[in-house]
Design a protein that fits this description.
By secondary structure, the protein is an all-alpha fold. It has two domains: 44 residues; 56 residues. Helix content is 73%, strand content 0%. The longest helix is centred in the first third of the chain and has 44 residues. It starts with 7 loop residues before the first helix and ends in a 16-residue tail after the last helix.
Length: 123
Amino acid sequence: MTGGMLTPAQLLRAHKIHMIARTRFRRTLQGLLLHLAAVALIGYFAFHAYTGNYGINARKGYEADIERLTRLRDDLRAEREDLNRHVALLRPQSIDPDTVEELARRDLGFALPNDLVKLNPGR
């Protein structure tokens, strides 16, 4: 052997060592990248589960909207029941004379001769 020259067996052995190291490095890198991708995917879904349109933060806003709309619905139901009672008083089968007089005074501007009337020129 002359200085610096490797035999074919030595070259093959050196090449195999290099190949093994490269394969082990590649396998380790692939495993690491796979775990990093899994963590990124889990992080993505966790982030959007917390801050997304239907996430935990948005649920608080939806609950406030539900409360507000429930109160509005209850108020509208009460108003509707009041209007239904008022309409029932105006039906021909059960007309209430006091209701007719109230409507005539308010909407038509009628008054009895002994009533004191105050006029509002701004209206």
